[in-house]
């Protein structure tokens, strides 16, 4: 909701300040979201759509996913605001055209500067995964402007017209340009997980991304973009697996093949593993966000299936190393992997 929408429901500016400590979250200047249904009857007008089932409450996981969801909500809110502004501008333009050119010039000078959603913000709009929070700001491009505000990061990069598209009533960088911008700006953990996801879902190809890269006016960190493309692999199925692959590269590990499948006759099923190193008979399994370690509510039957699956691998002579989400950012597990790789050479 915008401030004006909340006021039209009968609230004052003072009310808005109070409800921010209860059931409303400020996403950016003049934009709010309802977090949950509260016990205050006077607030019903705010969360009526949740109570009626038209909208749903935020799902809180108690981990990094909550920060990403909050940024996503801020992005969607700004998209809505820009859509409303665009609609107002179009209506004014029609009115001004009928009234004469002087009014048209006045309206044009009062219009907010054009902006294009980019980087992590564009990735969220395109539905790409964010491995972990790297910014709390909505990211946009405006020609000739480089500024950071509390909730918005404005970049002055020039985006060619063919690197932009319309989405949610506003402009956003194309999927390929978004992947390139993220790879230029953020760690490979972030960019490669997006590339893996986009390639796996068939949203784009390496050839399209390279063609877009060749058209970019910006040349900063081009080597980082090419490295991210070289490391990307459509077989990887989650951001956690992508981060693990980046760690393998950073530690100099080679020979790990993602998503290898075994025919386990005794289990009457196929066993698929995250990473397989055949030369050392080593399996690496990644327990990512929401899989086992962060209270995702995995049923006991699923845990038992995992136990039987892992025991079958060990019975076949494979060594299994499991890496939790937190361990992806520590050295201990990768030193264990190094000892296995070196010890069998």
From TrEMBL:
One family name in Pfam for this protein: DUF559
Region (Disordered): 90-113
Domain called DUF559: residue spans: 272-332
Alphabetical list of Gene3D superfamilies matching this protein: VSR Endonuclease (3.40.960.10)
Biased composition, class Polar residues, residue ranges: 101-110
Protein name from the UniProt record: DUF559 domain-containing protein
Organism: Brevibacterium koreense
């Amino acid at each position: 909701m915008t401030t004006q929408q909340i006021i039209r429901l009968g609230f004052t500016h003072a009310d808005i300040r109070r409800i921010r400590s209860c059931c409303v979250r400020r996403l950016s200047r003049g934009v709010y979201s309802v977090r949950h249904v509260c016990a205050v009857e006077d607030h019903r007008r705010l969360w009526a759509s949740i109570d009626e089932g038209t909208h749903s409450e935020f799902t809180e996981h108690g981990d990094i996913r909550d920060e990403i969801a909050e940024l996503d909500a801020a992005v969607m809110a700004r998209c809505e605001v820009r859509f409303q502004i665009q609609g107002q501008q179009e209506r004014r333009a029609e009115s001004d055209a009928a009234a004469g050119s002087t009014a048209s010039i006045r309206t044009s000078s009062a219009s907010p500067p054009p902006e294009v959603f980019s980087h992590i913000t564009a990735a969220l709009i395109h539905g790409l995964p964010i491995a972990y929070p790297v910014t709390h700001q909505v990211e946009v491009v405006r020609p000739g402007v480089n500024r950071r505000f509390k909730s918005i990061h404005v970049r002055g990069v020039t985006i060619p017209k063919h690197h932009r598209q319309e989405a949610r009533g506003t402009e956003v960088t194309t999927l390929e340009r978004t992947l390139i911008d993220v790879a230029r700006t953020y760690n490979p953990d972030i960019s490669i997980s997006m590339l893996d996801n986009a390639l796996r879902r068939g949203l784009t190809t390496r050839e399209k991304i390279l063609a877009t890269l060749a058209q970019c006016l910006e040349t900063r960190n081009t080597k980082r973009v090419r490295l991210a493309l070289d490391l990307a692999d459509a077989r990887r199925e989650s951001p956690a697996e992508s981060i693990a692959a980046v760690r393998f590269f950073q530690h100099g590990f080679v020979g790990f093949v993602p998503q290898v499948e075994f025919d386990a006759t005794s289990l009457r099923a196929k066993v698929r593993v995250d990473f397989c190193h055949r030369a050392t008979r080593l399996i690496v399994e990644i327990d990512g966000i929401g899989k086992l370690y962060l209270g995702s509510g995995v049923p006991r039957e699923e845990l038992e299936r995992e136990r039987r699956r892992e025991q079958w691998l060990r019975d076949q002579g494979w060594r299994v190393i499991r890496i939790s989400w937190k361990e992806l950012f520590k050295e201990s597990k990768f030193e264990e992997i190094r000892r296995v790789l070196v010890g069998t050479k």
